[in-house]
Amino acid sequence: MAIGDKYRAVHRRSLEDPEGFWAEQAAPIDWSKPWDKVLDASQAPFYRWFAGAELNTCYNALDRHVQRGRGEQAALIYDSPLTNRKKSFTYRALRDQVAKLAGAIAALGVVKGDRVIIYMPMIPEAVMAMLACARLGAIHSVVFGGFAANELATRIDDCMPKLVLTASCGIEPGRIVKYKPLLDLAITLAKHKVERCIVLQRWQEPASLVKGRDLDWNEAVAAAEPRGCVPVKATDPLYILYTSGTTGQPKGVVRDNGGYCVALAWSMQYLYGVNPGEVWWCASDVGWVVGHSYIVYGPLIHGATTILYEGKPVGTPDAGAFWRVISEHKATALFTAPTAFRAIKKEDPEGGLLKQYDLSKFRTLFLAGERGDPPTIEWAQKLLGVPIVDHWWQTETGWAICGNFVGLESMPIKLGSCSVPAPGWQIDVLDEQGQRITKPGEVGAIAAKLPLPPGTLPTLWNADERFKQAYLADYPGYYKTGDAGFIDQDGYVSVMTRVDDVINVAGHRLSTGQIEEVLGSHNDVAECAVIGVADELKGQVPLGFLVLKAGVTRPPEETVREVVQLVRDRIGPVAFFKNAVIVPRLPKTRSGKILRGTMQKIADGQPWNMPATIDDPAAIDDITGGLKTAGYAEKA
Ligand code: COA
Ligand code: AMP
User: Fold this and answer.
1) Which of 90, 186, 494, 521 could form a disulfide with 149 if both were Cys (CB 3.0 to 4.6 A apart)?
2) Cα–Cα distance between 41 and 477 in angstroms, integer?
3) What percent of the chain has pLDDT over 70?
4) pLDDT of 204-243, one tens digit each?
């Protein structure tokens, strides 16, 4: 057999016989009721996997492993250089604590189908909270700790939770993030009234509780009776995870139970090449999809040990932190974002800190969240001497669209490419007319043929029409990924850029439109635009351009300072919005469309052409001048 034959045979089979293929892959999952139909296409384009089946995702992640002899194996290792704490939980201990927490949640009247928001830092209780909801069949929605109260309020109004689970604070290097006041403010801002909150008090910043509404976590759990797993439909939602849309209204990506369990079990074995019983580390955050799939559900469903790391790649305490964690816990693989490796490379370019640690168990590094830039991949490759796998996916997809399936067959790695499509993914590159591009290497919009495989979004929460409009309307029969790139002669996919107004900051997805909405709400601002400018460490950072209202006479720095603060207050520190440039006008087409692409090229110092459709070419000089005044002289 030639290299790639094994992968190609699996991929081909998954497309030719999707029902047969996925029925086989469903075998590692425990179902309390078998499915009637593997793929229900009766409501297309709303596809449902494993229709009629029932299961419980928490049972698959915990209870069954205890029943089958993994009770004393570590399920979760919490390693927190930010608090100097480490703690290991066996499968039995985690199951017992989750069952008690589920009891506390149920005691507040939460039942199957109710929504629960989780706004928590990277502590074991956050994982327990997710699993406890899954245990009851309640739908959780985790909100990343770096979002501000306003973002939390938007999510409260969209999914209308019965309960919020939170901790008194999060810990960032050099600063405590007080979650509780943010939650209190969010509850005030939201139209939907949250009836109950359970608050975990961290000693670093205990919070005051609202009488009659807030319960102390430890007291609630101590008083609770453990709860068993409630069977749910395979097609019932396990969670809602919000991601940036084109406006301030985020999209609530829905994830089902059955298809997700199957896809995660498959990917742990065949994409990540991890065996049950081995230690696996995903250095992301439970607030992101990567954290949902590969800190929490994937490794636990697979019977592996997962590491929960409350720290950073650098500064906690140094750029050897990742090597320390891998070596201390004997991790076989790590999954993180390229930006984390750029941060390590910047601090320790020779990788000298690695020499202190034994990485003999470490087999593979997986990168995703943004394009794996070749210099970073080459650096990591040279330093670690293991395969560095770039793989591509999105909040919507729940698991990888493309990757190198090292547990099935390692394919040659091509720098700059995220390798080949996962089973069930038929990827095409389309031209502006929506026609398939057959010439290898030609760039176009990347789209996936419907139906998408199990684990991917069946719809958006309470927004079927928006789901169709956002993803399915542009290219009939396809899911629009929003990314552009090309496929080479060997079928390798390269993802180059977004085609919409989404930018990628340190592996975090942000909408420039959403930041523009905030800037536009400032009193001094007549018009604005936000672009993502290239950044050596974070990949991209947002930069604002402001046209001030006539008659504004305040010093421009004041306005800039205020809009920067406004974005931090409304969206959160995660937006990493640090600067804005004041310009007399914005370059536009004759129909009034702001020429953000050209502005971005100028800011990045890339070659650019004067757009034929530009209304007034002199507006470009304003951009160049504004960038120079704001200290972007070299690039502009
Ligand atoms: N709660 C509150 N604030 C948070 C936060 C959280 N959970 N996470 C980040 N922030 C804050 C940071 O403190 C920072 O605030 P500042 O502007 O006051 O300094 C801001 O949000 C931006 O954070 P980030 O862009 O993450 O920068 P950083 O300096 O904290 O860390 C990296 C830089 C590269 C180490 C970090 O971004 C990283 O590890 N990224 C990997 C991302 C990832 O895992 N993505 C998931 C896909 S795999
Ligand atoms: P998110 O939904 O936050 O996970 O962001 C998904 C987006 O991140 C994708 O649509 C891509 O634009 C980008 N992305 C993720 N992984 C990769 C990758 N390996 N290569 C290129 N872009 C990526």
Assistant:
1) 186
2) 13
3) 99
4) 999 999 999 999 999 999 999 999 999 999 999 999 999 9
| pLDDT at 634 (0 to 100) | 55
Of the bound ligands, which one is closest to the alpha carbon of residue 509?
A: 2
Q: Quick check: CB of 345 below 6 Å from ligand 2?
A: no
- CATH code of the domain covering residue 594: 3.30.300.30
Please give the Cα distance from 21 to 454 (Å, whole number).
Answer: 11
Q: Are 361 and 376 in contact (CB under 8 A)?
A: no
Question: Do 480 and 523 fall within a single domain?
Answer: no
Domain final position from 438, 469, 485: 485
Residue range 343-370, pLDDT digits in tens:
999 999 999 999 999 999 999 999 999 9
The answer to whether the predicted template modeling score (pTM) of the entire model surpasses 0.90 is yes
143 CB less than 6 Å from ligand 2?
A: no
For residue 497, which atom of ligand 2 is closest to its CA? Answer: 12
One domain for residues 435 and 548: no
- Sheet of 388-390: strand order equals 85-90, 74-80, 305-309, 279-282, 331-336, 364-367, 388-390
Please, are residues 122 and 325 in contact by the beta-carbon 8 Å criterion?
Answer: no
* 8 Å CB contact between 55 and 258: yes
Tally of residues, the chain = 636
- Report how many domains make up the chain: 2
Ligand 2 centroid distance, CA of 241 (Å): 16
Give the per-residue pLDDT at 335: 98
From the CA of 241, the nearest ligand is 2
Look at residue 80 and tell me if it is in a domain: yes
pLDDT at 244 exceeding the cut of 90: no
State which ligand 2 atom lies nearest to the alpha carbon of 290: 4
State in Å: Cα 41 to ligand 2 middle: 28
The atom number, within ligand 1, closest to the CA of 537 reads 34
pLDDT in tens, 69-93: 999 999 999 999 999 999 999 999 9
pLDDT range class, residue 626, cuts 50, 70, 90 = confident
CATH of the domain at 204: 3.40.50.12780
Domain extent, residue 561, equals 518-629
pLDDT at 333 over 90: yes
Task: List the residue whose alpha carbon is closest to atom 6 of ligand 2.
Answer: 394
Helix (H) or strand (E) holding 570: helix 556-570
Asked whether the beta carbons of 583 and 546 are under 8 A apart, the reply is yes
Q: Residues 421, 477: one domain? A: yes
For 217-221, 468-472, 501-505, which range has the lowest pLDDT when averaged over its residues? 501-505
Report residues whose beta carbon is within 6 angstroms of any ligand 1 atom: 121, 145-146, 170, 172, 177, 284-285, 288, 290, 312-313, 336-337, 339-340, 343, 368-369, 506-507, 538, 573-574, 576
Q: How far is CA 306 from the centre of its chain?
A: 18
pLDDT of residue 400: 98
pLDDT beyond 80 at 94: yes
Does any ligand 2 atom lie closer than 6 A to the CB of residue 8? no
Q: How does the average pLDDT of the chain come out, rounded?
A: 96
Q: Is 598 in the pocket of ligand 2 (CB under 6 A)?
A: no
Out of 463, 485, 507, pick the residue that ends a domain.
Answer: 485
